[in-house]
Sequence to fold (326 residues):
Amino acid sequence: MNLLCLEHKISQTEFTYSFVLLTYNQAETVREAVLGALAQNCMPLEILISDDCSADATFDVIQETVASYAGPHRVILNRNDRNLGLAGHIDRIHDLSHGDVIIVAAGDDISLPQRSARIIETFEAKQPLLVCSLANEIDLSGQRISTKYRTATLYNSIDPSDVAGSRALYLGATGAWRRTLYQKYGAIIPGAYEDLVMGFRAALEGKIAVIDEALVIYRVGGGMVSSSMVSVDFSGLCSAQIRKLSTWKAVLRQRVKDAQTFGLTPSSPIWAILRTAESRANLDWAYYQNDFGIFLKLAFRNPILAIRTLWTERRRKRKLSKKLRK
Fold:
């Protein structure tokens, strides 16, 4: 591990704040991400730039970029001795940072200068446990594009019943959360994405704030755990679906654990939503693993869900087949 600290005093507010930039194999984009972090126009922050043992020149670029920095923020550089994966890296940055609030950024996105100031204003005024915002989207070449990310649940509802079964809660690169939210529920299960976990935790607690302003330039198709997998044939489709299902099953295991920690009563409708989502995920998993013995056993217990799985996945394959014929 390589730690470099540039000491600056952090101004007093009700909460203290750490801006955390997570990087992994992002040598081509990380300079802009680091410059965005250093350009935060707000009270002095603790800025932790943490690299998860990249195999490329990411950490070298980070060191070069911060070498001449002489601004007001306190900068900490870290490079993990071994790759921890996203969940392990999230746990590590909680050990290395000190703020009551963790403002998260990614090594292929750019935080706009006002981002931290707007997040700080929101935490101080509303005292939520999690804050997220809007973003301006670009493709891998830097061109502006538009996706449907605002259909993610928290941009439309913070009701935990709506959140429990959702596979898209908010853009993780726009998020910030209270350290206490992480401490109460504990480390994230390996394989799960932090936005799908922290968003559910905050929804259970009923303390979420959404800033209706673009505070991040979000690079679509990049990321440490990009979901933009291109399937060129049926084999590729199956592999992509298995990867996605592996993540989703980990998220659901974490949500069940967190619901127990929160103390949901057996009569809560959230339990039914989680159990149904688990059953559906297990059916999908058996289908794509070609384990039809398990699929039939699960289908016997959940015939309606099994029919839905068969209809959905066959429709997905038909669409791919049409695409391949073009």
